[in-house]
Amino acid sequence: MSSRRRRTIAVLFGGRSVEHDVSIVTGHQIMQALPAKQFTVVPVYITRDGAWYTGDALKGLEQYQDERLLERAGVRPCCLSPDTRHHGLILNPLASRFRKSEVLRLDVCFPALHGSHGEDGSLQGLLELADIPYVGCATLGSALANDKILTKMALRQAGLPVLDDFNFSRERWLEQPDAILEAISGSFPFPLFVKPATLGSSIGIGRADNQAQLRASIDIAVNFDRRILVEPAITGGVEINCSVIGFGADFEASVLEQPLSWDDFLSYEDKYLRGDEGMKSAERIIPAPISPQMTAQIQAASVSALKAIDGRGIARIDYLARPESGEFWLNEINTMPGSLALYLWRESGYTAADLVAKLVALALDAQAEKRRNVYDYKTNLLAVASQRGVKGAKGKG
User: Fold this and answer.
1) Last residue of a domain, one of 217, 232, 247
2) What's the domain range around 215?
3) Would you say residue 279 has pLDDT above 60?
4) Is residue 389 part of a domain?
5) Do 154 and 285 fall into the same domain?
6) Structure confidence by residue, pLDDT tens digits, 116-160
């Protein structure tokens, strides 16, 4: 990375997602970690309603408990332009006689959004249109990993171990709840886990030990997503997590961790509210107390999983495992892990500044690779169409 000038990095956080608060924490951790000598940091806060704002007053985490935050001096409405000529933010997009619009050009965007409208490929698609380099998975990898049902399909195709599942739509549940309950009960024994297909941070997930709990868990889950996934629980198992970082052919896997939960699975409260430093505060064992052979297998599977979805940047891969038998199943891929899984990368010698700088470098590498593609392909189609008429441009109508 050139040291001739500081790059302008926009860190995007908040968003229209049930993981809004988690994203604010992750965004501020990233902003604090970006080395000031290398980067000019531009905070971009997206409200729960989807309004965009920027300004230095947004850098103070403690201020987000105050609803008047967006009225502070220097906080300005903005939007990300898909026009490649702008290559950045439009400040004051609704211009008036007293407030003119301006363009703030960006070198790189660092999305710190979790879940819907940020980690699901939608924001990545906007950044692709704008032709701005960005950290993390591209549109396809983000969309695949955000959808637990599609993730399983891709991982099965790649030969990676995943649990069997039963999935259905909210529409089908509302029309045929008894038929769905009967089909699930005939497929798996209790206990079961019920999950919204596209949410993270354990939101909307329920454990069912009987038919009544299964019905209640599904009734909750359908409020968070239109597609639902049901899986058998791994009794006597543990959770094992691994982070992966890289792009192209160069990937690195972190040490493994074993999170320790107060309940049957890591709830939102376990992950974020039992301490004061986000995911880092949850109780965990690092490195995970499993055999070297199983450690190597999970690390290799993690790299293969990220490649299977054409992923890049950073991800945390979560597993369910039975260390005694050596069995493990890939549970989900988080393409923007809370706290960037820094607690795992510290064990590999990374500081927070090292990690974010590497992710920015990977974003620039991905943009350089993208620019090798040909997008301008000129033909005589328009001339032919103008002569023959649009109807005959593809042949006889």
Assistant:
1) 232
2) 166-232
3) no
4) no
5) yes
6) 899 999 999 999 999 999 999 999 999 999 999 999 999 999 999
